[in-house]
Amino acid sequence: MLDLLNVWFISPFDYGFMRRAVVGGLALSLAAPPLGVFLVLRGMSLIGDAMAHAILPGVALGFLLAGFSLPIMSIGGVLFGLMVALLAGAVSKMGGQREDAAMASFFIISLAAGVMLISLGGSSVDLTHVLFGSILAINSTALLLIAGISTLIVLTLAVVFRALVVECLDPLFLRGQSRRSGWVHSVFLGLLVLNLTAGFQTLGTLMAVGLMMLPATSARFWSKRLEGLIGIAIVLAMVSSTGGLLLSFHLDIPSGPSIILLAGVGYLFSALFGRYHSLAAKLRRKTTPLAVEHGS
Amino acid sequence: MSERSLSRLQLHNLHLAQARRTVLEHIEGDFKPGAITALIGANGAGKSTLIQAIMGELRPISGEVVCTVAKERRAWLPQQLALDLTFPMSVEELVMTGSWPSHGALTGYCAGHYRKGREIMARLGISHLAHRPLGELSGGQRQRALIGRTLMQEAELLLLDEPFANVDSETVDILIRILRQMADDGATIIVVLHDMDHLRRLADEVLMLNGGHGRWVAPSALNQHHAPAQVVPFTLGGRHAGSA
């Protein structure tokens, strides 16, 4: 028994690449889920996806200029992601179009531009790498970058937390309080872009969103409190990233998809058996209708 | 401390427009500390437009709004509040956010803040709801929690857009009492009202908007000069959901 535990959970980490991968995964699991929770609460769940596409041309440009250098590609990604976010904001402010419509237009342009750029300068292997990542290929520089970005995100979130909560709940109240309330939204978008650039090395630009959104959407089935949501989402993300890595190691399957699919299993389980709003909760409610009564 | 007699909010020859259409012209006003002003007028008369201008959300075409109240001491409760009711927040947490602007982002709430928050909830009769999520509140309970936030904020200028719409009569009584206390403590309060009964109980002064102009009237004059038959139809205007 102990032997089996050792074979499944301990010995894989004899390999350096597995150690770096799991640390990178855990670092991302700390930073990404809180952002995801706020996105879900603001009804902006799809914006994460859009931003993930938006960083692609920047990553591709970095790749064309400096080869496969994570720092350069990340800088490119951050710059491009912020640019798209600003452009989308500007287009929607110009009038008429809502921000999500502008965002949808920009992200699809970005995706095409990114794929085009990478194809011009590299092979289809490079394209696969950027689109789908390879957590097992993280080197020490990449790990430092990921850990650094995650630390920055967690610290910044701690500073802007209250403003972010107020802005999510009642933007008008925040606007009434300060002329510079717009910065909260900008900082949040900036953190989003940073997180996605940290994630693309491990999970690829397209799936980096998974570790952000799936734990957050799953957590909604388990808690009604903000702290609870964030805590549960982080635990779910950590379990998925570590479990997914181990699965990919033992079953010889690609690591990125197995991490995200494991998070997906967590989502389906939560939707079926979670405490709130799940299928099981609905069935429970039907059998005891009086429990809805709260008194006044 | 500023002198109490000095007005906190003045409107000078205000000209306001929405989408390039003039809504209000030549609006003059002087709102004193401790006074509750009722803002009345038919639908579309420009009540919300005037409130937007006072809160600095709408730039006047000409004239000016002079307000000496610091931004973090101004509170605005719009009628259809853009409050996300699925947001995982309790009544107590909502009330506590009122202290955030002056308190800063980094430091935690101390025991004194929580004590103040609990006192406020007790005054409003929502102590038993402290840990209830916002989504499970009735309209009246939510309105009380929001007033609780403005109390926490120590608001000196308070603008309310139909605070008694869709609110139970017990809440109306409590809110009227609390608003009067806030005014007695020196707050300047402006309330958009539709109900003559509420107006009689609450207002010290009345600014009536009609045909793009504003007219200041005393509440008593409103009762005497306008026979109820004239005033009531447009003031009550099918909005008497309050006592339901």
TrEMBL record, chain A:
Q: Localized where?
A: Cell membrane; Membrane
Q: How does it sit in the membrane?
A: Multi-pass membrane protein
The keyword Transmembrane helix belongs to this UniProt entry's keyword annotation? yes
Q: Main site of residence?
A: membrane
| Secretion signal, residue range per the UniProt entry | none
Which keywords fit this entry according to its UniProt record?
Membrane, Transmembrane, Transmembrane helix, Transport
The family database entries (SUPFAM superfamilies) matched by this protein are listed as: ABC transporter involved in vitamin B12 uptake, BtuC
The family database entries (Pfam families) matched by this protein are listed as:
ABC-3
Q: Which domain of life is it from?
A: Bacteria
Q: Give the transmembrane region(s).
A: 20-41, 72-91, 103-122, 142-161, 182-200, 229-251, 257-276
- UniProt xrefs under PANTHER family: ABC-TRANSPORTER METAL-BINDING PROTEIN, IRON TRANSPORT SYSTEM MEMBRANE PROTEIN HI_0360-RELATED
The entry sums up its family as follows: Belongs to the ABC-3 integral membrane protein family.
Protein known as: Metal ABC transporter permease
List the source organism: Vreelandella neptunia
UniProtKB/TrEMBL annotation, chain B:
Q: Which portions of this protein are annotated as coiled-coil regions?
A: none
User: What are the alphabetically sorted keywords of the record?
Assistant: ATP-binding, Nucleotide-binding, Transport
Q: Which Pfam families match?
A: ABC_tran
| Ranges of residues in domain ABC transporter | 9-236
Alphabetical list of InterPro entries matching this protein:
AAA+_ATPase, ABC_transporter-like_ATP-bd, ABC_transporter-like_CS, Metal_Ion_Import_ABC, P-loop_NTPase
One term of GO molecular function: ATP binding
User: What span is annotated as the signal peptide, if there is one?
Assistant: none
Gene3D superfamilies (UniProt xref)? P-loop containing nucleotide triphosphate hydrolases
The family line of this record is:
Belongs to the ABC transporter superfamily.
What is the protein name for this chain?
ABC transporter ATP-binding protein
List the source organism.
Vreelandella neptunia
